[in-house]
Amino acid sequence: MEVESKEWILAQYVGEGVPTSEHLKLRTSNLKITKDVLPDDHVMLRLHWLSVDPYLRAKMSSQQDGLYLSQFHLNQAVTTFGVGEVIESKHSGLSFGEIVIHPFAPVAEYCIAPASFLRKIDPDSGVSVLDYISALGIPGFAAWVGIVVLGDPKPGENVFISAAAGGVGVFAGQLAKLKGCRVVGSVGSDVKVKFLKEEIGYDEAFNYNVETDYDAALSKYFPNGIDIYLDNVGGRMLEAVLNHVNSRARIPLCGMISQYNKVWTEREGVRNLLNMVGKEVRMEGFMLASYMNRFGEFLEEMIGYIKQRKIVSEHKIYHGIESFLESFGSLFTSSNVGKVIVQVNKDAKA
Amino acid sequence: MEVESKEWILAQYVGEGVPTSEHLKLRTSNLKITKDVLPDDHVMLRLHWLSVDPYLRAKMSSQQDGLYLSQFHLNQAVTTFGVGEVIESKHSGLSFGEIVIHPFAPVAEYCIAPASFLRKIDPDSGVSVLDYISALGIPGFAAWVGIVVLGDPKPGENVFISAAAGGVGVFAGQLAKLKGCRVVGSVGSDVKVKFLKEEIGYDEAFNYNVETDYDAALSKYFPNGIDIYLDNVGGRMLEAVLNHVNSRARIPLCGMISQYNKVWTEREGVRNLLNMVGKEVRMEGFMLASYMNRFGEFLEEMIGYIKQRKIVSEHKIYHGIESFLESFGSLFTSSNVGKVIVQVNKDAKA
Question: Which residue numbers delimit the Enoyl reductase (ER) domain (chains A, B) (predicted)?
Answer without folding.
Answer: 66-342
